[in-house]
Design goal:
It is a single chain. This protein has 598 residues and is an alpha/beta fold. It has 21 helices and 25 strands. Strands 2, 3, 6, 7, 8, 22 and 23 form a seven-stranded mixed beta sheet that branches. It has a five-stranded parallel beta sheet with strand order 11-20-12-13-16, covered by helices on one side. Strand 7 and strand 8 form a beta hairpin. Helix 2 crosses helix 13, helix 3 packs parallel to helix 17 and helix 17 runs parallel beside helix 20. It is globular and about 70 Å long. The N and C termini lie far apart (61 Å). The chain binds NADPH dihydro-nicotinamide-adenine-dinucleotide phosphate. The site of NADPH dihydro-nicotinamide-adenine-dinucleotide phosphate has 26 residues, from strand 4 and helix 9.
Length: 598
């Protein structure tokens, strides 16, 4: 396959009407290099993966998100202007959201449209916004086109300012949604739900919080985010560090200065080179006296090429344009039957080989981009990712790679080992000490474990994670039998979408329809039927059988750090189109899928 072909499929630039299709591989098209070329690269991928795994065999337990005691400062809310002092609340609402990010905002909007008046958001932060409330680090922006990522644009009459929206614009949009749908009225901020227990007699949920509240609700929506709880890599000596330190999701502008001006005489260190670090590093590089970037696995950095929104295009948009765009997108994810037939007619081995070869071509283009943009050869080599596209979250940035040409920016490549030692002055790697005044942890987030801060107990007092201890069991990743009137958003067993808000909107519509149906038919509860649950678990397993990601990919949160994993404990891989079809289909025959009780 030629380079041109790969480039075409990754180019969306300068056309706001296009969806951001990043890389599409087609096994009916052969690649044009000798197979040996691809085999050698694949062998190198495996070698790098093993190196990384052997250096840190402790999998998921290499991290901690138990940010208490000495570590509590990494989770403190820097955006709260003051602690809200209030008396505990004891009252009842019809629907209660645990979390105030996009999951809650989108679903609440749909509930309002269906006449639900009593809606409460309970949120740990001091405002709505979720991810975009917390992540305000310099350069925070979204990698999905703003016209697709920012939801409810038709409803709010808003057109984003540029192809990719920046953090503050997205946060402001979240606030605008909350205003429009009156979601601030009953919202409780700076409050964490600690227990959500089903009362079988009264058929309501009883919730308690870290503020001593005793809340009840008919319907509870677990909307606490996919990647919400910051985690730290456990590193020997980290508690002895005497300089300043913080996690990227709690970016310390009080220390760094609003425009990072306080860093001009500071030595800065950053641990991690994931999607967050990629956005921060160019800004830190320009502001700091020196910047040391401690890398374990390089990110794949593709073209961003952001453009401001064309005012003429914006003026030409007709009401309902975003809905029409999203509908087109769903249809666009529908497999073309002729193409599918052609693909299926290929021998399985050849199909896999061509997918892999094209994937390798794609990654080699990423390598060439590093060579073009990074002047120092050794640094460029170290910045090349050696794994298949989509083994790790791909990133899109035009400033990251050139930042390594700045004389004050230094890459400390740990060759897959990662930082393993910190002392009172800074980081120690390979016997060399790197003293820094401030150390920033860009080490990511716990992947959503339902009820991450919360003890959820359904019928018979069974805790949800205990139910899942022998494998997750849900319908559509949203309902779990024995947990009536409880809806889970953005979790496993649902489809995975690069555009997360699209997934959440799909779930939000479904949840709103479920609640509407329950209310309008005079029922008190809706619960998944055990047989629907079994059917969905089987569907999830069927499609997860086709992925080798856990085994072959370099470790990361996409593949449970390379740990063995039950096939049902992950996303539904049947495709977004199929997922939407399943939800739409259930809507026409809810009683087949769910038990309703009066
Ligand atoms: P990630 O989990 O993606 O990255 C964590 C980073 O820390 C990795 O580079 C990891 O290395 C590194 N790390 C962990 N432990 C060590 C160690 N001991 N020494 C050195 N490095 C270490 O978190 P992010 O916050 O970057 O991103 C999380 C997700 O949030 C993204 O995947 C994306 O979904 C979303 N996001 C989206 C953005 C966008 O739209 N542009 C921007 C930011 C985030 P290793 O890879 O080896 O594990």
């Amino acid at each position: 396959m030629s380079d041109t072909k790969v480039k075409e499929s990754t180019t969306r630039h300068n056309d706001p009407n296009k969806m951001a299709v990043r890389a599409a591989f087609d096994p009916t098209v052969p690649t044009d290099k000798p197979q040996e070329f691809y085999d050698q690269i694949k062998a190198k991928f495996a070698e790098e993966r093993d190196k990384r795994l052997n250096a840190r065999p402790d999998g998921l337990s290499q991290y901690t998100s138990e940010l208490t005691g000495e570590l509590a400062k990494y989770e403190t809310d820097p955006w709260a202007e003051e602690r809200i002092e209030r008396e505990p609340i004891e009252d009842h609402v019809e629907t209660l959201f645990i979390g105030g990010g996009f999951s809650a905002l989108l679903t609440a909007a749909r509930l309002r449209e269906r006449g639900v008046e009593s809606i409460r958001i309970v949120e740990k932060g001091s405002d709505v916004g979720g991810t975009w409330y917390w992540n305000r680090y310099p350069g925070a922006a979204c990698d999905v086109s703003a016209y697709d990522y920012l939801p409810l644009l038709d409803e709010l009459g808003y057109v984003p300012k540029s192809f990719f929206a920046k953090g503050p614009e997205i946060f402001a949009h979240c606030q605008a949604i909350a205003e429009k749908y009156d979601l601030y009225d009953l919202a409780i901020f700076q409050t964490t739900v600690t227990a959500t227990h089903w009362d079988e007699k009264d058929k309501i949920w009883r919730l308690t919080t870290d503020r001593g509240d005793k809340l009840t609700a008919n319907f509870v929506i677990v909307a606490n985010g996919t990647l919400a709880k910051p985690k730290l890599s456990k590193i020997k000596g980290m508690e002895t560090y005497q300089g300043h330190s913080f996690h990227t999701s709690r970016f310390d502008y009080a220390y760094c200065g609003h425009d990072l001006e306080n860093l001009k005489d500071k030595r800065v260190g950053i641990i991690g080179t994931g999607a967050t670090a990629v956005q921060i590093i160019p800004r830190l590089g320009r502001a700091a006296k020196s910047l040391h970037v401690f890398q374990r696995t390089p990110s794949a950095i593709d073209i961003r090429d952001d453009i401001p929104t064309d005012p003429e295009w914006a003026a030409s948009l007709k009401p309902g344009w975003q809905k029409e765009r999203l509908d087109r997108h769903v249809l666009g994810t529908r497999p073309d039957p002729d193409k599918r037939k052609e693909i299926e007619s290929l021998p399985r081995e050849l199909r896999t080989q061509r997918y892999e070869n094209q994937n390798i071509e794609h990654q080699m283009r990423i390598h060439r981009r590093v060579e073009e943009l990074v002047e120092d050869k050794a640094t460029a080599e170290a910045l090349k990712p050696w794994y298949m596209h989509r083994c790790k979250r791909p990133t899109y940035d035009d400033e990251y790679l050139p930042a390594f040409n700045l004389p004050n920016v230094h890459l400390v490549d740990t060759d897959g080992k990662g930082v393993t030692e910190i002392n009172e002055r800074g980081v120690v790697f390979d016997g060399v000490e790197y003293p820094v005044d401030v150390l920033i942890y860009a080490t990511g987030f716990e992947v959503q474990v339902t009820g991450i801060y919360n003890d959820i107990r359904g019928e018979g007092g069974l805790e949800l994670n205990d139910k899942y201890s022998t494998g997750m069991r849900t319908v559509f990743g949203i309902h779990s039998a024995g947990y009536p009137n409880l809806f889970i958003m953005g979790g496993y067993q649902a489809s995975f979408q690069f555009n997360l808000t699209f997934m959440l909107q799909t779930q939000g519509f479904h949840i709103a329809e479920c609640i509407k149906y329950t209310r309008e038919n005079g029922y008190k509860t809706i619960d998944a039927k055990p047989e629907s649950e079994q059917w969905w678990v089987d569907e999830v397993i069927k499609f997860r059988g086709t992925t080798n990601r856990n085994k072959e990919c370099t470790p990361g949160y996409y593949n449970f750090e390379g740990q063995e994993n039950r096939r049902q404990d992950g996303n539904y891989n049947g495709g977004m189109y199929q997922y939407v079809q399943h939800l739409d289909n259930s809507k026409t025959k809810f009683p087949e899928f769910f038990d309703f009780q009066q």
